[in-house]
Predict the structure of LysE family translocator.
Amino acid sequence: MDNYLFFVFMSILLIILPGPDTAIITKNTISNRKAAGMKTTFGTLTALLIHSLAAVFGLSALIVKSAFLFSILKYVGAIYLIFLGCKSIMILMKKQNNAPDVNDQQTKYENRSFYRQGFLTNLLNPKVAVFFLTFLPQFAGTGDNALLEFLALGLTYTVLTLFWFLIYIYLINLISEFMKKPSTIRVVEGLTGGVLILFGIKLAFEQN
């Protein structure tokens, strides 16, 4: 395995860059406390493991090389991000209209969907598949152990992602008294909804 420490360093830099995963984890942590952020994180990690295995067994290459499959994954991912963004804005509007019964039902639904949100947000992002297919091979060997090294790099990236989001969620909770004020939550939900919609539109118009 070539330049493993450099791979770790580069992975950390890439992981801390904000993206759809960070946006949804931020929203769920602030709106529904640390447990929600952790469930969302584990959904993201599960998707990363699937992307790692897909890269090892060549499925990512198939998706990247097939314009049809890539486009399907891209548009489904974009629609899902836009859906999450619109839902966040709708929740904000309902709270502003003081609809407690609807909010209670929405909260129960959200409690069941945190993991799914993290999972689908990452899994349906074809850019993650492209990343695993183009970034990891630069650090894996070409010998008999290439597949094992590839898998080890994917697991390393997943573990680093876990550590980063654990730290990130902890930092959010350090300022929870301010961040969990109703006015702050409303701002975060509105901003996150807008950001997710923008991520979805950007993904939809991303070139293959």
